[in-house]
What does this fold into?
Amino acid sequence: MKPQAISREILLLTDTSLAKRQLCERRDTKHKEARCSPADELEKACWSGFVFEMLPDIFNDHERKSLFVWKVSQAEQFLHIQLSSTPSSTDYATSIDPYFFLPLVVWYN
It folds into this structure.
């Protein structure tokens, strides 16, 4: 039997105190880089695997070992993170990204 691919989507709001507090603890003070916006810093942290540390309760041990960050999309108020064990495309019918389903809601109403 073929193993089933694991796929997760996460929306992180960029203006929350949780994201800002967590990033302040991880910020490297040795390198004086140009200041990034909080959303840019959160995106960099997600690419480096910080999402597993920030949200430990939503991943079991097997998922932590097998999931990889495949895509991080920055929107105006949130980051859309796609994690998967294998490269896969987003299923628009079941996605949590509001840019996928909100146009359909407006179209049908």
Remarks:
- The two ends are 43 Å apart (CA to CA).
- Strands lie at 7-13, 68-74, 78-84.
